Amino acid sequence: MSRAGAPHRDARDRVGGRAAVTRRLLGVALACAALAACGPQQEGQGAADAAGDAPCAAVAAREPLPAQSVQLHVHGPYSEGLGSIESHAAEAQGVGVRTIWWSDHDTRIATWHHASRFGFDGWREPIDLGEPWRALAAFEDRREKWLRPPAAVATTRAAAATALAEFDAARFDSPPRSFRLAFENADDTFRGVVSGLEADQRLWVRPLRSGVVVHVAVWAEAAGPDARGFVELGLSEHPPPGGGEPEPHVVRYVLANGGAPERSGLVFSVPLAWKPGRWNHYALDVSADAARGFPESVPGDDALAGIAVGVEARRGARAAVRFDSLRLEQSSRGAAAFAEQRALIDEVAAGRPAVRQLQGVEISYGAPHLNEFTVDTVLHDYDAWLAGSGLLDAAGRLTDPEAFRRQLVRRVVDDAHRRGGLVSYNHMLGALVAGWGPPKRDPGEVLAELTHDRLFGADLLEVGYRHRGGRPLADHLWVWDQLALAGLLPIGVGTSDSHGGPTERWRTSPNNFVTWVYAPAREKAPLIEGLRAGRAFFGDPTRFAGTLDLAAPDGARMGHVVVGAAASACVTAQVTRAASGDALRFVSQGQVVATHPLVGADAAVAQRIALADPRPHAVRVELVDAKAEPKALSNPIVFAREAPPDVAPVRVRGAARAAE
Q1: How many CB atoms lie within 10 A of CB 501?
Q2: Please, which of 58, 203, 289, 426 could form a disulfide with 44 given CB 3.0 to 4.6 Å?
Q3: pLDDT by residue (tens digit) across 544-562?
Q4: What's the CA gap between 514 and 495, in Å, rounded?
Q5: In the beta sheet, which residues pair with residue 219?
Q6: What is the CATH number of the domain that holds 316?
Q7: End-of-domain residue from the set 299, 330, 361
Q8: Whether 659 and 587 share a structural domain
Q9: For residue 443, is it within any domain?
Q10: pLDDT band at residue 436, thresholds of 50, 70 and 90?
Q11: pTM exceeding 0.85
């Protein structure tokens, strides 16, 4: 790893790569045909020894607890995406996942340092302009909120290009300018243009359960039956009553003197009475209007996901409207909003009892992001922590943002541990989803950081991403394996981090992994204990619905750390509901040591592992298909000369010994 990029190429080499593994599978298959040995091995009657020719007997005893399928990282209306609690629950049920452990961003639940005002004085504004808070440091100084240039609504781009969009200093509600849109259309159908509000990190988004009202001033310069202005508010997506892909709802406020609110498909339109020659001030109660416009959904199971202003015209008319003084009002935030979220989760879950839903939280100030898994999940108070940090100057600015970040991460982890919980280290190679851009983080550099910081004490590591941060699954596995060699043994989990929307579907997204935890019930306490013990595997729920486990003759199981010295150890991989063409790939110290094609859906395959290297041996298996693509991956049994620090006592077992 002497040069940048080498670690992730090495990672693919270590796990074999598709072509290499295919060749290996072919070689094993030919050997099986010649020796008629593979069938008996899969039935537990012996396997070839990577450390010699000694026989290796499979362990027959299986885990009596059920494997609970859990999505450990997913976002609903209290984050910045399109997902609602209802839409995710419907998708989970559709792929057979029985538990959702919600992880909305804590900063968004608290509406901490969010955009709430826009003056329409220019295309872009600093994020804290006009806000009741001030930027803490350079990272917030760089953030902005802005208005997108006009885009077409039911018209061509060429026609939209004729629209007038300007900032007018001659007439405004609040100085120094307002935003003026004008558009003319000869067709009999309303056509127009729209400009949407944006902010870095989508800091306009609000949960409607918290009582959201949008205040805006509007001056109708040219409006009437064939010309009008509107404010369009995009909401979360919901599954259609008859089934199908979730789609977002929209509440549209239209300048119209007369008429009643009406719904057309996914759009609920509300008329706004207006008077000419003056500023009309509106308080748009989007929380209430969404509830009455879409009564089939649980009230509040929406985010205010988009804000746009526009004009439209027909029959030769010209629409011209000014907009100014936009402000968001929210009736609850912080701890009150967190309690409302918990009630909302329970209300939606009551309508979908097949999916157990648990409230969690993602700690999202800076990096790393951390998920807290506790029975008594809390929402942390950043303002209180800042005030007590000793790192604020007289102007309320952070004197050392990096020191505060590290202080905060340590505090979050220690607090969760004090309350008997666990913490996961999230998307270690970056948050970019597949197709969003090139990689930004080198796996070798990430490994060095994680090793230096000892994962800040985190218990779990998000490993199961097919493609995240511009890096493939092989890179995530490489970092995990290298951490084990260094004596750091986080439990690996697979997650989606889905925020909803067409590119983050449970069935079709590249990152749709879930985690299965051996636990007696789908409740927080038993799931936490199953994770703490490492009794978990992860994979694609659309391609695998069985179980995966590891066992050793001395009673060790997947997740355990066996302490002692031995020349070799026998490890049994147990799988149920495998498909034709599947194989089990044994990995030790990041190296593929054997691949066993499977005959039959249920199998127990034993493999002897050499333990001569004094460093820890993390032995895990991957269930792969005929193309060597992983479908499910186990946590390891770790063989170590000494008990590594920071490992939960429940994971540690006695002296390692060679299997008889």
Answers
A1: 17
A2: 58
A3: 999 999 999 889 999 999 9
A4: 5
A5: 322
A6: 2.60.120
A7: 330
A8: yes
A9: no
A10: low
A11: yes
- Hey, what are 581's tokens? 């063409």
What is the spatial distance between Cα 442 and Cα 438, in angstroms, rounded to a whole number? Answer: 11
The answer to whether residues 133 and 140 touch, using CB atoms and an 8 Å cutoff, is: no
- Are 90 and 230 contained in the same domain? no
Residue 53 lies in a domain: yes
Point out which residues pair with 490 in neighbouring strands: none
Q: Is the distance from CB of 657 to CB of 555 less than 8 angstroms?
A: no
596 pLDDT above the threshold of 80: yes
Q: Residue 366: what pLDDT?
A: 86
Tell me which residue range forms the domain holding 420. 69-110+334-426+495-545
Same domain, 247 and 212: yes
- Asked whether the beta carbons of 394 and 430 are under 8 A apart, the reply is no
pLDDT in tens, 279-327: 999 999 999 999 999 999 999 999 999 999 999 999 999 999 999 999 9
Question: Are both 410 and 503 inside the same structural domain?
Answer: yes
User: Do 512 and 629 belong to one domain?
Assistant: no
- Identify the sign of the CA torsion 430, 435, 436, 440: positive
Please give the Cα distance from 433 to 504 (Å, whole number): 9
pLDDT at 11 over 70: no
Other C-beta atoms closer than 10 Å to the C-beta of 204 total 22
Mean pLDDT of 511-516: 98
Please state, rounded to an integer, the average pLDDT across all residues of the chain. 90
Query: Looking at the structure, do residues 93 and 145 belong to the same domain, yes or no?
Result: no
Task: Specify the number of domains making up the chain.
Answer: 3
Contact criterion met (CB below 8 Å) for 278 and 261: no
Residues 254 and 213 in one domain: yes
Domain presence at residue 249:
yes
* Cα 23–chain centre separation: 35
**Integer Cα distance of 488 and 458 in angstroms:** 10
Amino acid identity for residue 454 in this structure: R
311 within a domain of the structure (yes/no)? yes
In angstroms, rounded to a whole number, what is the distance separating the alpha carbons of residues 307 and 383?
A: 28
Give yes or no: residues 76 and 28 share one domain.
no
How far CA 281 is from CA of 119, 182, 191, 291, 329, in Å, comes to 14, 20, 25, 23, 14
According to DSSP, residue 651 is labeled G
